[in-house]
DNA sequence: CAGTATCCGCTAAGATACTG
DNA sequence: CAGTATCTTAGCGGATACTG
């Protein structure tokens, strides 16, 4: 197994407080990130497509999540200078790569939701 | 592909605001959850083992995360009535199952941290 | 259509002190 | 050792109103 060495010269290790992996993991793991990345796996989407696909997301959080995904290189934002404006969002190849473990996590949760809810009701007594 | 139907009679779907998968995904995806579950994959751990393994976690967050993992059926907590007390934490089989996608996510982040940091520095100009 | 801007409550999370 | 209790603060995230 290959060890990844990050720019500081230290090996990437999420258990280490200093490792930048920590921050990235933190916001990759966010609720909205999982859903946005997963949604974009279905193809190019416009802003309103995304807000419809992801029930309950506010404009603010959707915009914030998209900007952050863009800054991390997971998503591209293409503005078409038309009236009314049209903005397309797509996954980059890095984003499609990230989508694999993210989809796995969402699927796992969907597949085990009943076991978890049972454990929860058992914990309540 | 099999469709999971949850207790409400609806199919489990994280994109749906009502689906309990949402809440579970939300806190499964949390930073500390990922690290605790991953750490426990190395075997039984006592409270202090975990706090040492996971750099930077506060007592409060560690306890809170462990209690929540216990309530969801991912972790068992075994108290040995000795002086001084000894408490062992272990993954349940559900927890070990969850560990797979979680480990994949942590590993992915560690493996791609350099690409992400490059994208970030590019985004800054 | 695709956002910004602003206000604000809630709680996530850290720091600190104490205990069976 | 393995926590609990309390205080405090940062910022997540929703609601609402406005704009090129």
From TrEMBL, chains A, B:
<keyword id="KW-0805">Transcription regulation</keyword>
<dbReference type="InterPro" id="IPR002577">
    <property type="entry name" value="HTH_HxlR"/>
</dbReference>
<dbReference type="GO" id="GO:0003677">
    <property type="term" value="F:DNA binding"/>
</dbReference>
<dbReference type="InterPro" id="IPR036388">
    <property type="entry name" value="WH-like_DNA-bd_sf"/>
</dbReference>
<keyword id="KW-0804">Transcription</keyword>
<dbReference type="Pfam" id="PF01638">
    <property type="entry name" value="HxlR"/>
</dbReference>
<protein>
    <submittedName>
        <fullName>DNA-binding HxlR family transcriptional regulator</fullName>
    </submittedName>
</protein>
<dbReference type="InterPro" id="IPR036390">
    <property type="entry name" value="WH_DNA-bd_sf"/>
</dbReference>
<feature type="domain" description="HTH hxlR-type">
    <location>
        <begin position="19"/>
        <end position="117"/>
    </location>
</feature>
<keyword id="KW-0238">DNA-binding</keyword>
